[in-house]
TrEMBL record:
Taxonomic source organism: Mycolicibacterium peregrinum
PANTHER family xrefs: HTH-TYPE TRANSCRIPTIONAL REGULATOR BETI (PTHR30055:SF234), HTH-TYPE TRANSCRIPTIONAL REGULATOR RUTR (PTHR30055)
InterPro entries: Homeodomain-like_sf, HTH-type_TetR-like_transc_reg, HTH_TetR, Tet_transcr_reg_TetR-rel_C_sf
Protein name stated in the entry: TetR/AcrR family transcriptional regulator
Record's keyword terms, sorted: DNA-binding, Transcription, Transcription regulation
Pfam family, one: TetR_N
GO MF entries: DNA-binding transcription factor activity; transcription cis-regulatory region binding
Amino acid sequence: MSTGELSATQARTRGAIIEAAAAVLADDRTATLPDIAKAAGVGRTTVHRYFPDRESLINATILDSVQVVTTAVAAAAPEDGCAVEAMRRVINAMISVGNRLLFLFDDPNVLRGLPPEAVPDNSYLTSLIERGQAEGVFDPESSTQWLEHALYGLVMWACQDSKDGLMPQHAAAPAVIRTFERGVRCRD
């Protein structure tokens, strides 16, 4: 079934299946279609109506997750305002799509087969960190790549801890912001 032919109800059902797939597969890469169907609140035959096999569901979930993450970060307007405020918005945006981040980035094999134009673009983060370093608010002695890795590590662990019930969802972004800023902000 092509996505162009879907009614509003069918589009919502397809979206719920993809959302459930991202959440379930982030926890268990070997999850079956019945596991995903149960999490989506639909039957296995409904999943098969939209996705003929597990591979097509995973591929659709990868592409949709890239779009969801890209849209969330773009909505945070990382190029606007001072670097500290922009970074806070980006962190909040990333945490808000935590299941998608965990699905995409917890297993390096997920993105391996994607064509280059479909791979998530993180140039916004590089630019934001460089801007923060130029503004004198982010540590200029650390490389941009190191600061990106540190941020992604904090975000991923906050998303995982939140998902595992070790941290309330509403506490994840503030915890990442505090930890990141205390570690990378320039001191007077």
